[in-house]
Amino acid sequence: MEATGGTVLNVCSVLLFFFLTEVSSEYIHIPTLVHHGIEGKSLLLSVETHFSMDEVEIQGTWSHTRPSGTRATLVTFTKESSITDMMYRNHLLFREPNVSLLIRKLNPDDEGDYTLDLNIEFHNKTGLVIKEKRTVHVSVDVPVSSPVIEKSPSSAVIEDKANVTLSCSVERGTRVVFQWLRDNIALGPNDRYHFSQDNSTLFISPVRKQDKGMYRCVASNPVSPDRHSRGVELNVYYGPYNLEVDSVQSLRIGEVFTINPGELVFFECRADSNPPNSYVWISTSRNSTQVITEGPRLEVRFYRLAQAEEYLCRAFNNVTQKQDEARITLVVASFGPGKEKHIQDSGSVSPLAAITVCSLFVIGCMLLFFLRRTCHPKRVLMSIYNRPLSEQKRPHRSGHEDATEDFGIYEFVSIPGKMESAQASCRSLARLESVQDMHTTIYDVIRHVPETPSHSLLK
C-alpha cells in the first residue's frame, strides 16, 4: 500500500510541475532577449506581465553580470516599493509596476547579461509561489563612420612584378566588419588575395591584368548600416595580349590575305595592352627583313599577279617590356569587277574549290547541249542534203583523203516515213569512232532521203 501511495504521489507531483510550468510561462514576456545598444543612448529592457497586480504579491530582483564574470544586484523590488543599488541610482530607472528596467546613457561598462528573478503569489492561492526567470543580453556599440582606403603603392603597377596593399580604416566604430568590393563585386580570399584577421587589409600578390578596377571598402557593425568608402582605382600595366591583324578589303584564309592587283588595301594590327602598344610593320620576303612603317596601319598596293609577300606586325609595350608578333602572307589575284569582299574564317570555302565546282558545271552544260543537238530524232543532215545527190551518194574514200571537206555543222530535219531509219542512224552517230565511220553513217542516212527540194525540209 505504501508503494502504491508513493507512486500516486510522484505522478501527482510531476503533473503539478508541468501544470505550473505551463501556467508560469504565460505570466511574463520579454519581447527581445538581445539588445544592441548605442553608446550614449538609453535602452529599455521591457517586460510584459500577464496578470493583474491587484491579485498578486510579487518580489524580485534585476542583476547584471559583466563579460568578466562580475555579478551585481541592481534593483530589489516588491509591488509596493523598490530599492536601487546606490552605485546605479542615477543610471537606472525601475519602471513600476510592470517590472521593466531602463538604462540611461549606455556606456561600455553596461555590456553583459541582465537577469530578472521574479516570485509571484496569487491571493487566492496562498502558499503557492511561482518563480519566473529571464536573461537579456546587452551589447554597447559606437556607430561606424565612413571608411577610408589607403593604397600602397599609390601609382600604377606592372603585372607579375608588383604587389599591392589596400587598407581600410574608420575614425569611429566598434566591432566593425569590413568587406571588399572590386567593380561592385564582393572579393574573397584566393591564391593571390590575402586578408588580415579583421578583413580590414587586402594584400594582392602578384598583381595581374584582371586585378585592375575600382576598389571599395564596406564597413558595418550591429548598430550601423553598411557604410561605403570612396572608390580607389587600381591601374595595372599589362600586355600585349591577343595580337591580331585584320582587313575588311581582302579575302582571308588563316594567315593568307588575297587582294586584287592595283587595289589599295589597309591592314590593322591590334592587341590588348596598357599603356597602348607601339607597332612596327616589317617585310620578311626574299630572305631579308626591312621596316616598312610604324603604327598599327599598313597600306599595300600590288600590281603583279601571283606575287606573294610576307609581312610581320610587331607590338611592343614600353612599360612592361613585353612584345608579340603576328605574321601574314599577301597574295595578289584578280577577282574581276563587282566582287564581294569577305573576311574568311577557318571554316570558309576555298576559292580553288569554288572555281572547280563552277568549271564542272559549265562542262556538264556543254556536254548536255551537244548530246541533245546531235541525237535529236527529228533532224537529218541538212547541210549534206543541200549538196548534189551525186556527191551525197558517192562511195567511201579510203584513209583521210579530202577529209577536211566533210567537216562542218550538220542539221537534221524530219522526213515523213523515214523516222525509224533516221533514229537508227542517229544512234550510230553517237558511237562514231573515226572520220570514215562518220562518212558511212551519213551516207546511210542520205540514201533514205527522197529528192525533195531542200527548202521544203527546213523547220
Set down the secondary structure blueprint.
Layout (H helix, E strand, L loop, with lengths): L1 H23 L3 E2 L4 E5 L4 E3 L2 E2 L6 E10 L5 E8 L3 E3 L7 E4 L4 E4 L8 E11 L6 E13 L6 E5 L4 E2 L5 E6 L7 E6 L2 E2 L6 E3 L5 E4 L8 E9 L2 E5 L3 E3 L1 E11 L4 E3 L2 E4 L4 E11 L3 E6 L6 E5 L2 E5 L6 E10 L4 E11 L18 H24 L7 H4 L3 H4 L26 H11 L5 H12 L13
Parallel strand pairs: 2-11, 13-22, 24-30
Antiparallel strand pairs: 1-4, 3-9, 5-6, 5-10, 6-7, 8-9, 10-11, 12-14, 14-18, 15-16, 15-19, 17-18, 19-20, 19-21, 22-25, 23-24, 25-28, 26-27, 26-29, 29-30
Helix pairs in contact: 5-6
Pfam families: Ig_3, V-set
Main location: cytoplasm
GO cellular component, one term: endomembrane system
* Poorly predicted spans: 1-24, 338-350, 377-443, 445-459
Rg from Cα: 54 Å
Count of helical stretches: 6
Question: How can the largest sheet be summarized?
Answer: 6 strands, mixed
Enumerate the strands of the largest sheet in spatial order, edge to edge or round the barrel.
Answer: 2-11-10-5-6-7
Ends apart, CA distance between termini: 142 Å
Summing up helix and strand content along with how strands pair, one would put the structural category as alpha+beta
CATH H-level name of the largest domain... which superfamily? Immunoglobulins
Percent of residues in helical segments?
A: 10-25%
Q: Taking all residues together, what is the mean pLDDT?
A: 77
Number of strand elements = 30
Pfam family, one: Ig_3
InterPro entries: HEPACAM_domain (IPR052280), Ig-like_dom (IPR007110), Ig-like_dom_sf (IPR036179), Ig-like_fold (IPR013783), Ig_sub (IPR003599), Ig_sub2 (IPR003598), Ig_V-set (IPR013106)
Keywords: Cell cycle, Cytoplasm, Disulfide bond, Glycoprotein, Immunoglobulin domain, Membrane, Signal, Transmembrane, Transmembrane helix
Transmembrane segments: 352-371
